[in-house]
Amino acid sequence: MSNGFDQFHSTESYIVSPALKDVVNVAVALKRPLLVKGEPGTGKTLLAHNIATALGKPLLIWNIKSTTKARDGLYIYDTVQRLNDSRFGDGDVSDIRRYIRLGQLGQSFAAEEQVVLLIDEVDKADLEFPNDLLNELDEMSFYILETDETVKARHRPIVVITSNSEKELPDAFLRRCVFHYIEFPDQELMAEIVRVHFPEIEANLLKECLKKFYWLRSFDEFRKKPSTSELLDWIQALNSAGLDHQVIRESLPFVGALLKKEQDVDHFVQAASRPNAQRRGWAY
Amino acid sequence: MFLNFFYSLRRFKVPVSPTEWLALMEALDRGFALSSLNVFYYLARALLVKSETYYDQYDQAFSAVFGGIQTDEKVTEEVLDWLNNPLNRLVLDPEQLAALQRFSLEELRELFNQRLREQTERHDGGSRWIGTGGTSPFGQGGAHPDGLRIGQAGGGQMAAQVAAERRFRNYRTDVTLDVRQIKVALKRLRNFRRIGPEDELDLEETIDKTCRNAGDIELIFSRSRKNTVKACLMMDSGGSMSPFAHLVNRLFSAAHQMSHFKDLKYFYFHNCVYQDLFEDIYSSKSTPTAKVLANLDADYKLIMIGDAHMASSELFSVGGAIDYWYHNEIPGLNWLKRLSDHFHHAVWINPIPRRAWFHPTIKAVSRVFPMHEMTIDGLEGAVRALMVRR
């Protein structure tokens, strides 16, 4: 594409929906952080990896934990090390710069080339965390108080932020992002995804598996609905056991690979033994 | 450019700011939409809408501007809402009830959808129990809407169609409640205090002490910040609550899964609280309510869950308890007042929608406890009420 817009595509190991592809390209072109939400197992984290691969840029990952502070991503001033050095006398203590360590965000600014920065599970941190990053993400620069230096990004990094919506994100932060909610893949897309992982899979088997899988997902009562990774595990198990599609049509082997909670399995057994379930051919 | 789309979004209550609108204009200016309505749909959504909970409203606004989409969707939605609301099923006459019981809700809905599709005009009479007017509870809005199916979304679909499908209806915060959403709402119940062992390095203090020691390092530790919120759940397991069992179950499992509270206690009661509270849903093990009150500090956050819908005598009379083997010396309302007086923070969460809170016992209970709906918005209100001292 002439305007440099259409840079990101599906890769060999990662299938992306057309909508998401456009959204990624917009975020890259407008130089805004991309915020991705979606059910667990829809490939939010993988997206960043694949943007990096597709664009041929290095990837920096900043995993957020509940204790992470916004400043940790910029730089850490290792006071304890400096204190220790001053006490035991190895190294030049007067040079504070030696005790400043850049965090992932800081590194992505200081990098020689443009990088992809993944801020993973931003909602794990404290509520105020995203707001603390607003200015840095906007200006793409930050100030190190201790050394009176400003680190400015030479190349604006491509920022991908994932969230599991455990907490609401502040509006001011959201206004600056490009947002995409990854929907759970529909059957067609899921078939493609499965084929990426199991190129050899038999068409009939895949069809039956997906039918069962989406049927299971239609239970609203489940505490944890099976997701893509569970489907892949399940197919792996079926493959290893060498079961053919006939068996899967009539029963549901290895249900434990799909349902991880005891209550869900109980619930499923109950639902499957209801008379109407039998009629529909869902013997268990 | 497309300014009416902007105002349409605002009209559908999507919080769009001019900043975001300008970003979209920039993107369009640089030709990113590739002159395709399809791409424009996703592009505009990514730039203007920042939460999946607004996707549905976005779809509606998009349809209104670009789609020329039918509006009788609303009718279907009302009827589906009606089906979704378990309360309504309770007032059917025995014949209808018998008919209903033969079908699971999914089947019923499927059949209902099927009928709607077959139907081409208004039905204002007849005896089929779905899709007809008159005596049937389902038939009042029997207009025929197209596109009720929320179905296959192929790759080559037009944006207006995608928008008209309204696949994101389930993400709206004012409608659904799943375990995860409840957890998000309950997460706000927090109050951080420094408690527990001294296991966190206090840098400021360490530096200060070390300086005072003339460089001799002295490490100072302090207590880490932990959530001090304690919660007590009391759930109605009476018969009138069974339609809401799955909903209450979700709330319970959400609260249970959260390691977030310092302490979580839970009890069950039948329609109303009397001198005993039950420790499990089958009500076999009981604890005297007075003992619970004596054992739990006033700083527990009390969350009552129930429909508060009962016979007046159950609430107001001595000996009014629903179980015939059970006699209460003190009317239920007084017990409720005791609970409410004991705890600094207490709310009542009612799975019956607010618009149906007209029964005298619901009114009486809502005077004792601040009452909230069991929706995401309602839960958030409840959590807010639990954080402020009354």
Brief digest:
The complex is a heterodimer of chains A (284) and B (390). With 284 residues, chain A is an alpha/beta fold.
Structure notes:
The complex is a heterodimer of chains A (284) and B (390). In chain A, the strands form 3 sheets. Chain A has a 5-stranded parallel sheet, sandwiched between helices. In chain A, helix 8 crosses helix 9. In chain A, strand 6 and strand 7 form a beta hairpin. Chain A contains 13 helices and 9 strands. Chain A has 2 domains: 18-182, 3-Layer(aba) Sandwich (Rossmann fold), CATH 3.40.50.300; 187-279. By secondary structure, chain A is α/β, with parallel strands linked by helices. Chain B has 3 domains: 3-70 and 152-171; 194-226, no CATH class; 228-387, Rossmann fold, CATH 3.40.50.410. Helices cover 43% and strands 13% of the residues of chain B. Chain B contains 17 helices and 9 strands. In chain B, helix 1 (3-11) packs across helix 4, helix 2 packs antiparallel against helix 3 (37-48) and helix 10 (179-187) runs parallel beside helix 17 (376-387). Chain B starts with a helix and ends with a helix.
Our measurement of the CA-to-CA distance between the termini of chain A, rounded to an integer number of angstroms, reads 52 Å
Structural class of chain A: alpha/beta
Number of H- or I-type helical stretches of chain A: 13
CATH fold-level name of the largest domain in chain B? Rossmann fold
The pLDDT mean of chain A sits at 81
What strand line-up does the widest sheet of chain B have?
Answer: 4-3-7-8-9
Tell me roughly what share of residues is in helical segments of chain B: 40-55%
Query: SSE string of chain A, helix = H, strand = E?
Result: HEHEHEHEHEHEEEHEHHHHHH
Which CATH architecture of the largest domain in chain A would you pick?
A: 3-Layer(aba) Sandwich
- Please, how many domains of chain B? 3
Strand element count of chain B:
9
Shape summary of chain B: flat
Under CATH, the homologous superfamily of the largest domain in chain A reads P-loop containing nucleotide triphosphate hydrolases
Overall pLDDT of chain B: 72
Shape of chain A: elongated
Number of domains of chain A: 2
